[in-house]
Amino acid sequence: MFPITLSRKFLLITLALALAGCGGNKPEEKSDGAKPTPEGEKGGSFKVGLVTSGPVSDNGWNAGAYKSLQTIKTELGADIQNVEAPSAVQQEENLRAYASKKFNVVIGHGAEYESLALKIEKEFPNTQFLISSGGKAGVNTTPIIYKLEDGAYLLGMLAAGTSKTGKLGAVGAMKIPPLERIFKAFELGAKAINPSITILPAVYTGSWDDAVKAGQQTKAILDQGADVILQDVDAAALGVFNAVKERSTAAKPIYALGTNSDQNAVSPDVVLASAPIYYDKTMVNLVKKVKEGNYKPSDTPIGMKDGAIGFVMNPQLASKVSADLKAKIDAATKEIAEGKLDVLKGK
Fold first, then answer.
1. In angstroms, rounded to a whole number, what is the distance separating the alpha carbons of residues 156 and 184?
2. DSSP conformational letter for 162
3. Domain range for residue 175?
4. Among 133, 144, 216, 302, which is most exposed with the fewest C-beta within 10 angstroms?
């Protein structure tokens, strides 16, 4: 048994630590597993929060948003925080948490946040909610409508022009309107090069981060003869790339296509090109307008014409693309950028 004096010292130390823990900058605990940034990153009194449904290390959709958040801190002097919220319960909880803490802007990075923001926006009139891939503007909710289909159309042209089997495939995470538009534009771009090209029905994994499932679905498409695969599965993209790499040979090459960010370097042996979203052209500019005051929500789409969507060939595989095909893609890129070609409606 310890002497009474030592026990008292131990008790005092224990109480001191407990009190310090209660009074310190402890992250808000989430009973349902959300993972908040412990203390955010300090920059100024203007506060911006980002909620993503997947990890910001995905080399795609979420990574692009996080990079923009860092730019918002650097260029606008904002206090920033981010949190990953995989479930609908976590997503609403974290939108509310940031707004309750008087964040000026809360970014919900995905269409899944739109109904939640519209539901709660009136409770937080001093917070602007920005919803990536949304579709409906609210009182203080702005949908960021990315026309990624501009880039997908060009990827379709590239795919049809390089395919040897005459069959193309697509793998998505969720069957939601933004992905359906992307896959439709991919099909139209392919048929602009080869009207008789076969576009296999798109498959969906049901997950943005299940690389194993993405790989399995990709192999199922490859088994049907597709030799160019478009994917939009965020963190699970590596599963697609690995499946393609496993099946590709020098005699019968198979390629994959990147979306949301420049994924050419992720798997440079098989990713033929990417259609990145330039988030700094969208998120940063919108947040800047909010900070300047008198901001009004809008539902105007933004695409290649606005410098928000790109098309980037993988230089390592550039020799696989004929000069004629490249010229056709360049011409279409120019028409889209000038607003002369609506990829879903035609000229």
1. 9
2. H
3. 149-276+314-337
4. 216
